[in-house]
Design a protein that fits this description.
By secondary structure, the protein is an alpha/beta fold. It contains ten helices and eight strands. It has a four-stranded mixed β-sheet with strand order 1-2-3-4. Strands 5-6-7-8 form a four-stranded mixed β-sheet. Helix 3 packs across helix 5 and helix 4 packs antiparallel against helix 5. The chain is elongated, with a radius of gyration of 25 Å. The protein starts with a helix and ends with a helix.
Length: 261
């Protein structure tokens, strides 16, 4: 009888647990996904030259965020998991509160994940998976604890990929990129000094301030996200260096962030 009574108790407990699970109703992440879909959709609408769309949805333990770019310079193959997680960490730290708490807590409870999908204008897509445990780390860890050096190298590589375009724009023989004294520096070497004889420091600065202002204006509402990313990586602005073949004669134009704002 004692054994039967014990079995009865176990069955009742299991029954209550089952009923409780069924009575829990829809996951709170369904409403959170709907909210995010609206907020992130607005972000895309306010950044038309950079983003084509952002859609968020929730199903079967996965909070999906699909981001499509309209900027032809974006190549998602260049974006590492570390970089995407670093940007996500920035975003969640800027949106702390009850909604973020509910997302993190529910994902943990449901053993769920975030799945970010990036698609560029060439049709290339890449998925980035973030577990509930990793999301909690992204919320609390400092930038230096989030693969900082790897992310900085990744961003440097993306900057470097623009060298060919910069060289072609004004017929430079070559272009090299480096992060030098906290500036994103492009060093362009020309066949001779005649190529920039009509320029001085002020006019060279003006040339690139105009170009960069247009570029950052085209980021729309995403501009703050991009600038904050670069500042968090200790990049204080841009520098353009024009050199003759001897590597000595030349001009330098430094452009801190305040110049672009």
């Amino acid at each position: 009888m004692k054994v039967l009574n014990l079995l009865a108790v176990v069955l009742v407990v299991l029954g209550l647990a089952s009923c409780s699970k069924k009575a829990s109703g829809p996951s709170p992440l369904e409403a959170q996904a709907e909210r995010l879909d609206g907020e992130l959709g607005t972000l895309a609408e306010e950044s038309p030259m950079y983003l084509q769309s952002i859609d968020a949805a929730y199903a079967e333990g996965t909070l999906s965020v699909d981001i499509a770019f309209s900027d032809t310079l974006v190549n998602v193959a260049d974006y590492s998991d570390a970089l995407v997680q670093f940007v996500l960490a920035q975003y969640v730290k800027a949106h702390t509160g009850a909604n973020l708490d509910e997302i993190a807590n529910t994902l943990t409870k449901e053993e769920g994940k975030i799945l970010i999908k990036l698609t560029d204008t060439k049709g290339t897509s890449r998925d980035y998976e973030v577990s509930a445990a990793r999301l909690r780390n992204l919320i609390k860890l400092r930038p230096m604890e989030l693969n900082y050096n790897e992310v900085r190298t990744n961003v440097s590589d993306i900057f470097e990929s623009r060298c060919a375009a910069y060289a072609a724009q004004y017929n430079a023989s070559s272009c090299e990129f480096s992060i030098d004294h906290s500036f994103a520096q492009y060093t362009l070497t020309f066949p001779n000094t005649r190529a920039f004889a009509g320029l001085n420091q002020a006019s060279l600065t003006g040339r690139y301030v105009k170009m960069l202002k247009e570029q950052y204006t085209n980021y729309g509402a995403c501009r703050t996200i991009i600038e904050d990313l670069l500042k968090s990586l200790s990049i204080d602005g841009y520098r353009f260096v024009y050199l003759a073949p001897d590597g000595k004669s030349g001009l330098t134009a430094g452009i801190p962030w305040r110049t672009l704002n």
